[in-house]
Request: fold
Amino acid sequence: MVNIKVLTSLGIIPDGNRRFAKRLLENPGKGHEWGMKKIEKIMEWCRELEIKNVTFYTLSLENLNRRPKEELDFLFSLARKELGDIINNPKHWVHETNTKMNFFGQLHRLPEDLQEKVKMVREKTKNYKESNLNLAIAYGGRQEILDTVRKIASEVSQGRLSPKDIDEMVFRHNLSTDGTPDPDLIIRTGGEKRTSNFLTFQSTYSELIFLDTLWPELGKEEFFNAVGEFGERDRRFGK
Reply:
């Protein structure tokens, strides 16, 4: 039995789609297809472990700004298809598992039709309570902090907030992730050992596990072992 300790919120940086496709002599798009399917599998495993909140870093601002247009267009087409299925198919696994979907990041940077689908999926799943699937899209942790500072500064300049009343809770409520629990554990696949601007403010006390395995090939045993390693760690929170 995996020792999950008090693991209520999990963050995942799913790295390695393109490298996995290249290894199999496939185009990068195929790797992204496999990667998207892995999300459903991870959510299934998290339900077994009673992990209620899972946040995926699906598209960073750096990716949005630097990836080739044809690759981004393919990613957007995958997202359109999946979100459309959630909207139109009552038997989609999101509905059958009562999974609420949340989205955060600079969503205004996405194509307009995709923004509309995001809104519709939010609305369709807003009353689900079994688990939360959070997708960070067009997201960057530093940018989120800067955007939050701007929002608070605007409130102060308009006289709606006093500087002396600004505390951590005020700051949190102005983050795009407001309402999403800080991740107890962040798992990154693909061999890189950094968090790459993911949940910069929220991950201060997150445990980190880096796996060499590429995202599409991550298996249940390795995933359970990673969660089990979290259960063996002594979390002191600065004490």
In short: The mean pLDDT is 93. The two ends are 29 Å apart (CA to CA).
